[in-house]
Automatic annotation (TrEMBL):
GO MF terms, alphabetically ordered: DNA binding; transposase activity
The protein, known as: IS110 family transposase
Biological-process GO terms, alphabetical: DNA transposition
Pfam families on file: DEDD_Tnp_IS110, Transposase_20
Ranges for domain Transposase IS116/IS110/IS902 C-terminal: 201-284
Occurrences of domain Transposase IS110-like N-terminal (ranges): 17-155
InterPro entries: Transp_IS110-like_N, Transpos_IS110, Transposase_20
Length: 323
């Protein structure tokens, strides 16, 4: 008996699949097929989605980065050999507004992601490993814990009731213990992974970059070392964006990117502007040329992320060019 002929994918239209992710389900849209479905955001739902992709010439599946909720889908679909691109939610929202889709529902968002894939063709990328995802979750938890501790300290400073002050002091002490436990676990995970440990040492070799900035760059800027310097700066939201129109040359400003990475880089830049011989000279030159302190520090932040990208790509530690 002659077997059933397989579909000739070369003759099929390229299909872009938009996947809007939330905690409990995935809304999916196949463009230009016009097919839409909603499935559970779990192992069984993803199995159904992969079956729906069989026999279809998938050019790209496009997901929004939604905290941790897109990670399982990214890993599962990539493991099935499907090309998956993960895009920034701001980018997809601006695209939707640009094409006139002002309404926002999960089903509309899925269709917009599919259209974005067809028009802009975002690059497919493999997911971060589970070890990196876990490290990033711990680092983000540490940032939240530090913010909570700062808020408690501010409240304690304003409290007038003795009872409330005592309660807040106890909460601050518990927050400090929580942060210490997170630091210990983050350090343990880095030390037990040879690749992460080597990258961590490279980042720490940059004078001014301490453990907090290094662990943040390592876990929350996983693309570092695999992209261009400009790309790394864009991901961190530190690349100046042009604002020119006609004869007007507007002031360049940074925009977008990963705010939690910039927070860590700010403290590193403040230290580097004082203690790193190369970056201190760079900062001094900007200030002497009339740049405001905030702009000069932002430029140092950008220098650090570009430098870190080069060092990790070349697998070497930083050495000063100035004595």
């Amino acid at each position: 008996m002659q077997g059933k002929a397989l579909p000739d994918q070369s003759a099929q239209a390229q299909v872009y699949v938009g996947v809007d992710v939330c905690k409990d389900w995935l809304d999916v849209y196949f463009h230009p097929l016009g097919k839409a479905l909603r499935i559970a955001n779990d192992r069984h739902g993803l199995k159904h989605l992969k079956r729906a992709c069989e026999g279809v010439a998938i050019a790209r599946l496009v997901l929004e980065a939604t905290g941790k909720y897109h990670r399982q889908a990214h890993r599962s679909l990539h493991a099935a050999g499907l090309p998956v691109a993960v895009v920034n939610p701001l980018r997809s929202r601006l695209f939707a507004e640009a094409v006139g889709a002002l309404a926002k529902t999960d089903r509309i968002d899925a269709r917009m992601l599919a259209l974005l894939g067809a028009r802009l063709d975002p690059a497919a990328a493999p997911p971060a490993g589970e070890a990196m995802d876990g490290l990033q979750e711990l680092v983000r938890a540490r940032q939240s814990a530090v913010a909570d501790k700062t808020a408690l300290s501010n409240r304690a400073g304003e409290a007038e009731t003795d009872f409330l002050r005592v309660e807040l002091v106890q909460l601050i002490a518990e927050a400090e213990r929580h942060i210490a436990r997170l630091d210990e676990e983050i350090g343990r995970r880095i030390d037990t992974d040879e690749r992460l440990a080597e990258r961590f040492r490279i980042l720490l070799s940059i004078k001014g970059v301490g453990p907090i900035a290094a662990m943040t760059l390592l876990s929350c800027l996983g693309e570092i070392g695999a992209c261009s310097g400009k790309g790394a700066a864009m991901l961190a939201g530190l690349a100046p964006i042009a604002r020119d129109s006609g004869d007007k040359n507007g002031q360049r400003r940074i925009r977008g990117g990963r705010a939690h990475v910039r927070t860590a880089l700010y403290m590193a830049a403040v230290a580097a502007a004082r203690w790193n011989p190369d970056l201190a000279a760079f900062y001094k030159r900007l200030r002497e040329n009339g740049k405001a302190a905030k702009i000069a520090i932002t430029a140092v932040m950008r220098k650090i992320v570009v430098l870190a990208n080069v060092l990790i790509r070349e697998n070497r530690q930083w050495t000063p060019t100035r004595p």
